[in-house]
Amino acid sequence: MTAVAEKRLSFDDPEALRSLLGSSDAHLKMVSQGTGAKARSRGGDIMLSGTPEETELAGQVLSQLYELIRQGFPVYEMDVEFAIRILAADAEASLRDVFLDQIYLKGKKRVISPKTLTQKAYMEAIRQNDIVFGIGPAGTGKTYLAMAMAVDALIKGKADRIVLARPAVEAGEKLGFLPGDLAEKVNPYLRPLYDALHDMMDFEKTQRLMGKGVIEVAPLAFMRGRTLNNSFVILDEAQNSTNEQMKMFLTRLGYDSQAVVTGDVTQVDLPNGTASGLIEARRILAGIPGIAFLQFNETDVVRHRLVRDIIRAYDKEGA
């Protein structure tokens, strides 16, 4: 028979407690569903019951979220979900260290912070290394966080420009029939980078900086023969680069520059028999000081909850 443990949490700040519980106790219900512990509020207390592991996890989530609220951090339903995932993965983790590692985007008046332990480690790796590889499935924040770090570096004067690149590889769709020159034909491939950029900077300012060459979005092939100094460079969808292209890209890095390479090695759209430059780079460059590799998985997905389930289902089928 499974032992039942009970825990009482007492909170002396009524306003913070209301925020912790959420509207109609929505946050408390999420904690109960996510940890398996039964939870109910009574006055300034929250009563927990369940297995020792369930009550301990629920208690840690509620206690740490309460302290964040008291420090002025607004907690939403998504934050509660992330808090459960973080502490379920690492009971010693500090939500404060994760959620309060913030990037403030002045133009948009937005604050971006990591939502998983891997995202936190990713941001730290970008701060501490000249080249960082973020590898994992879609929706884990690899490109978005790299973009936020790039914009932050530009605003703070740590970089003179941002260069964003993507391989122009057809993923089952043929774009050759489209009108226009080469740049116009590959523009659809670069759209996700524009979207992320416009999410972080005012459209007018973005267009102005792009017009001056301070921000550049270009196909990977356009990087050949260049040297990028004082730049923050991002290569997105790098699994679709060839080994030669990856070597070419990484050797473009000049003085006072750093590069972030992102991709999903399970979604390679290269022709059969062509090795992925991202997979080869992980093998060839592992262990070199100044180069860091961060592996994301489905637990780091920060999109709709079903995205995690979809990734697991496809992984199970080997697709």
Description of the molecule:
With 319 residues, the chain is of the alpha/beta class. It has two domains: 5-99, 2-Layer Sandwich (Ribosomal Protein S8, Chain: A, domain 1); 112-317, P-loop containing nucleotide triphosphate hydrolases (Rossmann fold, 3-Layer(aba) Sandwich), CATH 3.40.50. Helices cover 44% and strands 17% of the residues. The chain is built from twelve helices and eleven strands. The chain has helices spanning 14-21, 26-35, 52-70, 77-89, 95-99, 117-128, 142-155, 182-200, 203-211, 243-250, 277-285, 305-317, and strands at residues 5-10, 38-42, 45-50, 103-105, 110-112, 131-135, 161-166, 215-219, 231-235, 258-263, 291-295. The strands form three sheets. It has a six-stranded parallel β-sheet, with helices on both faces. Strand 9 (231-235), helix 10 and strand 10 form a beta-alpha-beta unit. Helix 6 packs across helix 7.
Write the layout of secondary structure elements.
Layout: E1 5-10, H1 14-21, H2 26-35, E2 38-42, E3 45-50, H3 52-70, H4 77-89, H5 95-99, E4 103-105, E5 110-112, H6 117-128, E6 131-135, H7 142-155, E7 161-166, H8 182-200, H9 203-211, E8 215-219, E9 231-235, H10 243-250, E10 258-263, H11 277-285, E11 291-295, H12 305-317
Parallel strand pairs: 6-10, 6-11, 7-8, 7-9, 9-10
Antiparallel strand pairs: 1-3, 2-3, 4-5
Helix pairs in contact: 1-3, 2-3, 2-4, 3-4, 6-7, 7-8, 10-11
